[in-house]
């Protein structure tokens, strides 16, 4: 087995010029759109595109859930009895 021959067949991965920040739905949407465009123009393998699209979809769901959880926590904090002490002590007198 000639190891030099095997090395010639593999090319080193190209370094990424910039990493995509996937912290918001907008970023995920842009990444998904780029992936679909690359698939359409043939510059991305269908298997890789499938994996990326799945990953973007899962990540979008997680971001949506996190944002919803944060919004709910803010609403609950705004409606808590400590925030409105006058209404916390109200009770029906019979």
The span between the termini is 95 Å
Q: What are the low-pLDDT stretches, counting only 5+ consecutive residues below 50?
A: none
Structural Rg: 25 Å
What fraction, in percent, of the residue positions are helical?
55-70%
Query: Mean pLDDT, as a whole number?
Result: 82
Question: What features would you describe in this structure?
Answer:
The chain is mainly α. 65% of the residues lie in helices and 0% in strands. It is built from 4 helices and no strands. It has helices at residues 3-9, 25-41, 46-78, 85-88. The radius of gyration is 25 Å and the shape is rod-shaped. The protein starts with a helix and ends in a 6-residue tail after the last helix.
Short description:
This protein is mainly α. 65% of the residues lie in helices and 0% in strands. It has 4 helices and no strands.
């Amino acid at each position: 087995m000639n190891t030099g021959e095997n090395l010639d067949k593999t090319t080193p991965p190209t370094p990424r010029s910039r990493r995509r920040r996937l912290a918001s739905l907008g970023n995920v949407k842009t990444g998904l759109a780029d992936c679909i465009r690359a698939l359409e123009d043939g510059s991305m393998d269908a298997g890789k595109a499938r994996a990326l699209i799945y990953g973007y979809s899962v990540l979008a769901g997680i971001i949506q859930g996190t944002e919803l959880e944060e919004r709910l926590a803010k609403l609950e904090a705004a409606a808590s009895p400590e925030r409105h002490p006058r209404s916390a002590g109200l009770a029906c007198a019979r």
